[in-house]
Specification:
alpha+beta, three-stranded antiparallel beta sheet
């Protein structure tokens, strides 16, 4: 029997990272404040987890100014989208074969 856990991606084990990637899969991009509101997490928590996803190459972060206010937006990269789809496939496989 195959190891059903081997294809799960550790980068998505955190519920915040899972939430960020899930939302970025259905939105072209999201601003920091909108992501924070949707996930109901603190600034530091979102910043920490988004940095981990950025370091892994799974999301792209763009910082700019709107007027005098800083504006940070996030997008899933092609590599991130592929890795997340593979993670979802591994979860489906686990559910299907774990019965």
């Amino acid at each position: 029997m195959d190891n059903l856990l081997k294809n799960l991606n550790k980068a998505f084990e955190s519920k915040v990272r899972l939430g960020v990637m899930s939302l970025l899969m259905i939105h072209d991009e999201l601003e920091f404040t909108r992501l924070r509101e949707l996930l109901q997490v603190t600034d530091g928590n979102l910043a920490s987890h988004s940095r981990a996803l950025e370091t892994a190459g799974y999301i792209q972060v763009e910082k700019s100014f709107v007027g005098r206010k800083p504006n940070t937006t996030y997008k899933a990269t092609r590599e991130g989208s592929k890795a997340f789809q593979e993670h979802l496939g591994a979860l489906e496989n686990l559910i299907r074969h774990g019965r």
